[in-house]
Design goal:
Strand content: under 5%
Number of domains: 1
Order of helices and strands: HHHH
Structural class: mainly alpha
Radius of gyration: 26 Å
Length: 76
Amino acid sequence: LWLLRAKLEGFIEGLKSIQWAADRSFGFEAINSAVVRVTNGLAETLRNTQTGLLNWNVLGILAALIILIAAISLGA
C-alpha cells in the first residue's frame, strides 16, 4: 500500500467534494429541520381539535380501530 500511495493521491483529491458534503450532513439536517417544523405546525393545528375529555378521546380511538379492522377484513 505504501508503494501505491502516489497513485491514490488523485483518488483522495477526488473525494474532497464528498468530504465537503459529509461535513454538512449531506443536506439531511436541513430536511430534518423542515420535517420538525411541519410536524410541530400540524400538531399545533390539531391541538384545537382535542376536547381534553378522556371519554371522547377513547371513543375516537375505538371508532378508528373498528373502521381499521373492518377495512382490513373487507380486503381493503
